[in-house]
Amino acid sequence: MRKSVRSFTGEMVPANVVQDLVLAAGRAASSKNTQPWKLVLVQGQVLENLRTDYITAFDEGKKTSFEYIYSPDPMPEAYQKRAVELGKAFLIHKGIGREDKEKRKEHDKENFKFFGAKQVFFLAINKGEYGQGTFLDCGLFLQTLITELNSKELGCCVQYSVMAYPDLLRKHIPNSENLLFLLALPFGYPKTDNIANTFISTREPLENFFRVVENVI
Questions:
Q1: Residue 212 main-chain phi, psi, to 5 deg
Q2: Which residues are bridge partners to 125 per DSSP?
């Protein structure tokens, strides 16, 4: 069962394993075999420098600058309800009280630390070369990559929040001026003793999103 992993060991995933993961993900379906995705792996000192810049930006309240809109605004009531319920449930799971502003801030900051991961994938597409379907293709690629990670008992967490500072990504990722970054995927070996990794989000019952049509009216 897939779940978000938000704490990782310090062990690096070997280069040959990473290559196998990415090659397998590259077999994902895409319209007319266009394969519009670009994937960048950031690790080592570059990742540590990027992490430092992200933490500084968060601490200093740097203005966010998202380059694409992820959700409809305003968010549909049902979506908003699920998002709020998830946030509350996760904080309760971690034992963080509603009024504990310091712990809530540290909780939010974990996103900008990439949850301590030693390796982070960044998924992108070329600027000006995409339509709505391109995002669907990239979603198929992403899910295939996640499935491959799970098959090797590796964990990951999909992040849109860190798209808040695209200038910092371009500062540390060479030749990325023409890329539109879509999301980050910190990954690695999950820490088994971290409470964040024992949280499992709820899902809608089957009847809320699935139906069968077979009888002619």
A1: -110, 130
A2: 180
2 within domain boundaries: no
Cβ-count burial 61-71 (b if 16+ within 10 Å, e if not): eeeeeeeeeee
The Cα 83–Cα 78 span in angstroms is 9
Name the token pair of 147.
Answer: 């499935």
pLDDT digits (tens, 9 = 90+) for 141-163: 999 999 999 999 999 999 999 99
Distances (CA, A) of 172 to 57, 84, 163, 164, 166: 14, 33, 14, 15, 10
Q: Are residues 214 and 144 in contact, defined by beta-carbon separation less than 8 angstroms?
A: no
Considering the chain, what percentage of its residues have pLDDT values greater than 70? 100
In whole angstroms, give the CA distance from residue 49 to residue 30: 34
**CATH number of the domain residue 192 falls in:** 3.40.109.10
pLDDT > 90? residue 21: yes
- Using one digit for the tens of pLDDT, what is the confidence trace for 45-63? 999 999 999 999 999 999 9
Question: Position of tokens 């049902």?
Answer: 78
Task: Kindly state whether residue 25 falls inside one of the protein's structural domains.
Answer: yes
Number of structural domains (the chain) is 1
User: In this model, does residue 187 exceed pLDDT 90?
Assistant: yes
Both tokens assigned to 139: 């979603």
Q: Which residues contact 38 (CB under 8 A, 6 or more apart)?
A: 123, 124, 125, 126, 179
